[in-house]
Design a protein that fits this description.
Blueprint lengths: L2 H14 L3 E2 L25 H4 L9 E9 L1 E2 L2 E2 L13 E9 L5 H15 L7 E6 L3 H11 L6 E4 L12 E3 L4 E12 L19 E14 L7 E12 H8 L9 H14 L7 H18 L8 H19 L11 H8 L4 H5 L1 H30 L5 E2 L1 H11 L3 H10 L3 E2 L1 H18 L16 E2 L6 E12 L2 E3 L1 E2 L4 E6 L1 E2 L13 E5 L5 E12 L2 E10 L2 E2 L3 E6 L1 H25 L5 E6 L4 E6 L6 H17 L4 E6 H6 L13 E7 L2 E4 L14 E10 L2 E8 H21 L7 H34 L4 E3 L2 E7 L5 H15 L3 E7 L5 E7 L9 H11 L3 E4 L3 E6 L5 H6 L2
Parallel strand pairs: 1-2, 6-7, 12-13, 14-19, 33-34
Antiparallel strand pairs: 2-5, 3-4, 5-11, 6-9, 8-9, 9-10, 10-11, 15-16, 15-18, 15-24, 17-23, 18-22, 20-21, 20-24, 21-22, 25-26, 26-31, 27-28, 28-29, 30-31, 32-33, 34-35, 35-37, 36-37
Helix pairs in contact: 3-4, 6-7, 7-8, 7-11, 8-11, 12-14, 15-16, 19-20
Length: 867
């Protein structure tokens, strides 16, 4: 049974049992979840459902979830390729019950699927339960009929109460409960004992499915009250299950990996298909391709750094197989063939994935060989510990992540001095911190009511109550005139910075704005629904409990809204002009401009920039009305609204339709596209590998920008004595004139050199039978010096020459020449190098001709005398 069929049978089976098939979520976990970078199990996308923060329109779900474990607590990277079942990327099959069915149905479903659908022999299956879970034990033995000697009770085997292989918890507190794992027995010909036995780490008994029963809510004091609605969360590794159903003992022998390993062998020209490096490459291409497809680009921090580590580990294994040029990106079509049908995102973004991989490979190959030479030389000494400072140098200079150095060392039974590496890393960080003037304000502790945002409909609120005040990060009761601080209001028209849009500016006041006047310079979110107004008190005092008026600066808000609205239309235009691979990677919208970062492998052409501008301005001219609608997340998805990878959305979202763009957005916007006025891109640049940045302006800012361009053009027209429309033609004519004059000047210099050559022959000095000539040539440049040396060599027939000249800015040009019969005794490079050192420069060239430069014209005569 092929892996694709196994996946589909699982999902179809649970659909027949009333489960909703839910699409795999992104590998990237929302930035709102500080506990994870990556989705590492099937339950991650349902975390808020399990803890009661979110409700779904279904109580039963089934998924085939793409997962990644390559960092933090779940870090399998160093084992990948060296064991039979470790992977960076893997697929987790799961079924979930949110307060619906519980243990008996979950275990009966699992037994039915394994024995009746997948046809696994019943006598090959074992189960484990938590040692106190009599309910699960009785279901296995009395309801399902699994023999008692194949149901193993597992106690607290990890050093504490409830610390067990068969007791699961989401975190130190919160939902938790016992679990029941299902094992497959590969038979006595494979070493290893049953679960719970001293020999359990062998490969005979392999866990294939874990059924977690969340029935307790662990409290900080250790109490374990029961959840009002217990839930089920199960996970079965697709690759492990495929190995069992395809009658192989290693995940790397299943059909998917068999094909990817053959592809890796093809691209690395490796005949030994059992080579460990091929397994590493085959595993890593899945992880890298899906990370890139989900919006990650290799970089220096967070998920981007993890991706870079995995790519470079794969490249190093290719290098180990003798591959010295980019090859990894060529496996993308093979991966699409294997997984594109189940995960269309990988097929849709195949070109983008390949481009990003190729660019990263090319970059790393430039330093890989040098780094490997340093590694090999250090390891050749035979020591058992690799120096931590050198490991840091490899990381800092050659881009070798620590785990890549550790990989190479491990293969040679050498341990890396990680403490030394960490010390060198911390020293660098301290130096960076010392050089940095950036200071982050301490987090503010707030436990009051949420802020009611009124700013979509009004710029002025008369009756806002002050809920909290902070000065220097500390909660206070009053902020006096002349002081700064942070204010929390119960209701506000001020937009708080989020979604790339900066916070509003304005004032807080009482009465006629004279009794109390406060400037609001920025607004940020203290918590998701709590706004912090950063203020300067000009007159009067702010006091907790006081009722004040809050007024947004209308002009700044209008300019910001124009720039934010045009960003949405520009995003749509970029995808239309460049392709659907364009994904937002960051934005900043304020009153002056919009700055938009997006995935794009190559710089935009002038024609593409003009096409984006034309698209946006046509949308503006259409003057369509902006529509903002709050709806359920599922309805938003069905409506075709664009959502950003890695963002976490609640049950209800705000869908903004403006022109042809439809995206989720909570920002402030214009009423009609025509309100934007005019749009102009001011710059396009690269900010990282595969990431481009566009800066643009709208409205009066764009108008002023074009006026300045016109003023500049008018100045150029006046300077070139032409009409503005004739400026390009006039400049072309002037450039042609300059080239003609330069050519004429060069000819004159050549004639000068020829004439001077005859005069210089009188300065030739003969010593020990060798002719020497050194002289300063006034007004000559490097080219003229070189031509004069050539002519002098011909005139002298045999000899050594050193000529120099001072440039208009006081620097020095030098040229040395040696005739062919003397290059065995004298080298022009040595002569000019010695002279250049005297004038503070350096240079070099062929034995018979060499050039140099210097900065100290006052010492030219000393340099010439050095010959």
């Amino acid at each position: 049974m092929k892996l694709a069929d196994i996946r589909e049978k699982f999902l179809t089976f649970f659909e027949s049992k009333g489960h909703t098939r839910v699409a795999s979520s992104s590998l990237l976990v929302s930035a709102d979840d500080p506990t994870l970078y990556f989705t590492n199990s099937g339950m991650v996308q349902f975390k808020d459902v399990f803890v009661g923060k979110e409700k779904r329109p279904y109580v039963r779900a089934t998924t085939a979830q793409r997962c990644l474990r390559a960092g933090g607590k779940h870090n399998d990277l160093e084992n990948v390729g060296f064991t039979a079942r470790h992977h960076t990327f893997f697929e987790m099959l799961g079924n979930f019950s949110f307060g619906d069915y519980f243990k008996e149905d979950a275990l009966k479903y699992a037994w039915e699927l394994l024995t009746e659908v997948y046809k696994l022999p019943k006598d090959k299956l074992w189960a484990t339960v938590y040692f106190e879970d009599d309910e699960a034990y009785d279901i296995w033995t009395k309801v399902i009929g699994l023999p008692a000697d194949r149901v193993v009770r597992i106690g607290d085997n990890k050093g504490a109460r409830y610390a067990s292989d068969n007791f699961w918890q989401m975190a130190d507190i919160g939902p938790c409960g016992p679990c029941s794992e299902i094992f497959y027995d590969h038979g006595p010909e494979v070493a290893g004992g049953p679960p719970g036995s001293p020999e359990q780490d062998g490969d005979r008994y392999i866990e294939i499915w874990n059924n977690v029963f969340m029935q307790f809510d662990r409290q900080p004091n250790g109490d374990m009250p029961r959840l009002p609605k217990p839930c089920v969360d199960t996970g079965m590794g697709l690759e492990r299950l495929a190995a069992v159903l395809q009658h192989v003992h290693s995940n790397y022998e299943i059909d998917l990996f068999d094909n990817l390993i053959k592809a890796a062998a093809r691209e690395t020209k490796t005949s030994d298909l059992s080579h460990t490096s091929l397994r590493v490459i085959a595993d890593h291409v899945r992880a890298c391709a899906f990370l890139i497809a989900d919006g990650t680009i290799p970089g220096g921090a967070g998920p981007a750094y993890v991706l870079r580590r995995i790519i470079r580990r794969a490249i190093r294994h290719g290098y180990k197989l003798g591959q010295k040029t980019p090859f990894f990106f060529k496996l993308v079509p093979d991966l699409v063939k294997e997984m594109g049908a189940a995960y269309p995102v990988i097929a849709d973004r195949a070109t983008q994935v390949a481009n990003v991989l190729e660019a990263e490979e090319t970059r790393f190959y430039e330093t890989l060989e040098n780094g490997m030479q340093i590694l090999d030389a250090a390891l050749a000494g035979g020591g058992k510990t690799f120096d931590g400072d050198l490991a840091f140098k490899l990381h800092d200079t050659f881009g070798f992540p620590l785990d890549l150095t550790a990989d190479v060392c491990r293969e040679r039974n050498v341990t890396v001095d990680e403490a030394g590496f960490n010390a060198a890393m911390e020293k660098q960080r301290e130096n960076a911190r010392a050089a940095s003037k950036f200071k982050m304000e301490a987090g503010l502790v707030y436990e009051g009511a949420k802020t009611d945002f009124k700013g979509y409909g009004t710029l002025h609120v008369d009756d806002a109550k002050i809920l909290a005040l902070y000065k220097d990060g500390v909660s206070v009761k009053k902020i006096a005139a002349g002081e700064t601080g942070v204010v929390v209001l119960d209701r506000t028209p001020f937009y708080a910075e989020s979604g790339g849009q900066v916070g509003d500016k304005g004032t807080i006041f009482e009465g006629d704005e004279c009794e109390l006047l406060v400037h609001v310079d920025d607004v940020t979110k203290i918590q998701a629904d709590v706004f912090g107004h950063h203020v300067r008190v000009i007159a009067g005092d702010l006091t907790v409990g006081e009722v004040v008026a809050a007024k947004v600066d209308a002009l700044t808000r209008a300019r910001t809204a124009r720039n934010h609205s045009v960003t949405h239309i520009m995003h749509k235009a970029l995808r239309t002009v460049l392709g659907d691979h364009v994904q937002q990677k960051g934005s900043l919208v304020d009153a002056e401009k919009t700055r938009f970062d997006f995935i794009q492998p190559t710089p935009m052409t002038d024609e593409q920039i003009r096409a984006v501008e034309r698209y946006v301005n046509e949308e503006i001219l259409s003057n369509t009305s902006t529509q903002a609608e709050v709806m359920a997340i599922a309805d938003a998805q069905n409506s075709g609204a664009m959502m950003l990878f890695g963002e976490k959305y609640g049950d209800e979202v705000r869908v903004l339709s403006i022109g042809s763009s439809k995206e989720l957005c909570g920002g402030t916007h214009v009423g009609h596209t025509g309100d934007i006025g005019f749009f102009k891109i001011t710059s396009e640049s690269g900010v990282a590998a595969g990431i481009r940045r566009v800066e643009a302006i709208a409205g009066d800012n764009a108008y002023e920008f074009v006026n300045k361009m016109n003023d500049t053009l008018a100045e150029v027209a006046a300077a070139t004595k032409s009409q503005w429309q004739d400026v390009p033609k006039r400049i072309a004519q002037m450039q042609d004139n300059v080239k003609a004059l330069e050519k004429e000047l060069a000819a004159l210099k050549t004639k000068l050199a020829a004439a001077a050559g005859g005069d210089l022959m009188s300065k030739v000095v003969e010593k020990d039978g060798v002719k020497f000539l050194s002289a300063e040539i006034e007004g000559a440049d490097a080219k003229a010096l070189r031509e004069m040396v050539d002519q002098l060599k011909n005139k002298m027939g045999s000899g050594v020459i050193l000529l120099g000249a001072k440039t208009p800015d006081g620097k020095v040009a030098l040229c040395a020449g040696v005739t062919a019969d003397l290059v065995g005794k004298f080298k022009a490079g040595d002569i000019v190098g010695k002279a250049a050192a005297i004038v503070g420069g350096k240079g070099g060239g062929r034995p018979d001709m060499a050039m140099a430069g210097g900065v100290d014209g006052a010492k030219l005569s000393d340099a010439l005398a050095s010959i």
